[in-house]
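BUG: 3D viewer hangs when loading the predicted structure for this chain

Environment: internal workstation, default settings.
Expected: structure renders.
Actual: progress bar stalls at 90%.

Input used:
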Amino acid sequence: MSNVQNENHGKCYRKKYKYMKKRIKSLIIENAALCDEVAKIQENILIVKDERKFLLRKLLEYENEIELKQQTSHYRHESMTQNGSKAKPKKRRSLEESGKTISSNC
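Structure tokens produced before the viewer hung:
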């Protein structure tokens, strides 16, 4: 009887061993597939980071160009107004502001 029990236990353990072996093999394959997917996603992240850096540099260059254009146009405007070509009309002070009063005797 003990011999029969040992055989039954042996068969049972052999079934469990084969099941565990198949299960481990499938987990290894699944893990490898997940690792591949993680590697692809990391590569995509690096590509997107590089694109973002490139676009940021381009944006900063563009903003600097706009700022320089605004500064040069501002300086041109100031130099034109100082030269008199586009001088703003000065406000005339009224006689009352200067401390003189005019009586209207007309």
